[in-house]
Write a structure and sequence with these properties.
Helices cover 46% and strands 14% of the residues. The protein is an alpha/beta fold and 361 residues long. It has a single domain (2-291), classed as Rossmann fold. The structure holds adenosine-5'-diphosphate and magnesium ion. Residues 54-55, 88, 90, 92 line the site of magnesium ion.
Length: 361
């Protein structure tokens, strides 16, 4: 893996700076409609504040989707990499891929400067086969101040900063996965303006899940002007029990409660992704501590994972007491992520077809 500059990009700030507070709102609309068709492969994961599973789910989906692209490449089919971008300043996604403290780990400095100062946009290429990622970390907390400053002078167009950047690189990627928490308003606006599809992990108590969903629906409403296309595309349940391969009544009841809310809001129940990620906090934490997404971690527990360079088998992971990790839960969770990914991609492709249809009509 190596840090590479995606070149040929034009100034994002010049676009923003062509606007003032007094600009004709129609000029913003016309920028939005130019950007929109180029952002249809951008999927945002957002809900709640922290610990909801945004990073776990997004990093794992990125890994599954990248493997699928690699498999296409192996069959001689056209393929494109996946790009994973985390906007939150904890930069936990680095842990999921085991790249924390690598030489290119700059705690998000490069990304923040690319975003807010038009510097070169760099990605870590080949974090896994067909998977690139943007480094993030403590520097990401400088984004809100920079965007606020732009907003003071140039108005709402400033919230399109990330959208303008991603619209220039989206053709290089099959999917761009954007992981951000709605806690900070500026980050939230940048993220919501840049993606077309939203994925929300649902984890925890019924009340927390329902409240989180309500908040998210409100945010989607508020960003309409800057992004008329974004909708909640997929609700992914995480951490619920599965007995003999079927959901327990806890999840079935929760899904029904949410289903009724969706009906009332005239949102299709299809957003409720049928497969879900079963409970496995210990396994999830171990996988993250080993710097491996679920599928890789599962292969490691069975002794089937090999070092990409040396080809040597990777030592089987152990828990904090030094015991070998039981492969079963890891294999089950990896299988859950594959199923969820298939379902989510199908939903998003359908929605994109609808969006393209609207445009053609
Ligand atoms: N399958 C699972 N079952 C139960 N808990 C899980 C599972 N996967 C992840 N978790 C837990 O959920 C939390 C999610 O953390 P994280 O993905 O960093 O959330 P966020 O990005 O929303 O802050 C972690 O504490 C992790 O241990
Ligand atoms: Mg996170």
């Amino acid at each position: 893996m190596e840090l590479v500059t995606l070149d040929g990009l034009s100034s994002r700030l010049n676009v923003i700076k062509s606007f003032t507070d007094m600009s004709d709102p129609q000029d913003v609309d016309s920028l939005v409609s130019q950007l929109r068709p180029r952002l249809r492969n951008v999927v945002g994961t957002t809900i709640g504040k922290g610990g909801e599973g945004k990073t776990t789910v997004t990093a794992n989906l990125a890994a599954v989707l990248a493997e699928a692209e690699q498999a296409r490449a192996d069959q001689g089919l056209p393929s494109k990499p996946i790009l994973y971008i985390e906007l939150d300043s904890n930069g936990n996604g680095r842990l999921n891929f085991g790249v924390r403290n690598r030489p290119f780990d700059d705690n998000g400095l490069g990304f923040v400067e690319a975003l807010t100062e038009d510097k070169d946009f760099q990605v870590v290429q080949g974090v896994r086969p067909h998977l690139d990622m943007v480094m993030s970390g403590s520097h990401n907390s400088d984004i809100p101040t920079a965007v606020t400053k732009l907003n003071d002078k140039h108005g709402v167009a400033s919230y399109l900063l990330l959208a303008i950047l991603l619209a220039q690189i989206s053709h290089r990627y099959r999917w761009i996965l954007l992981d951000f928490s709605p806690g900070d308003k500026m980050i939230q606006r940048l993220g919501l303006a840049a993606c077309t599809h939203l994925l929300a992990p649902m984890r925890g108590s019924d009340n927390a899940v329902i409240e989180g969903l309500g908040t998210l629906a409100g945010l989607v409403g508020q960003i309409r002007r800057l992004n008329p296309e974004v909708t909640i595309a997929a609700l992914v349940f995480l951490g619920y029990m599965k007995r003999n391969d079927v959901a327990t009544s806890q999840l079935t009841n929760l899904r029904e409660k949410i289903g009724m809310l969706l009906d009332r809001a005239r949102i299709s129940r299809e957003v409720l992704v049928d497969p879900y990620i079963r409970d496995g906090e210990t396994t999830a934490n171990l996988a993250r501590n080993h710097g491996m997404p679920a599928g890789e971690f599962a292969r490691a527990t069975t002794g089937k994972l090999r070092h990409p360079e040396s080809g040597e088998p990777v030592e089987r992971p152990r828990d904090e007491n030094g015991r070998l990790v039981d492969p079963q839960r890891a294999l089950d969770i990896a299988a859950d992520y594959s199923q969820v990914a298939t379902h989510v991609v199908k939903r998003i492709r359908q929605r994109n077809q609808e969006l393209q249809g609207v445009r053609a009509a």
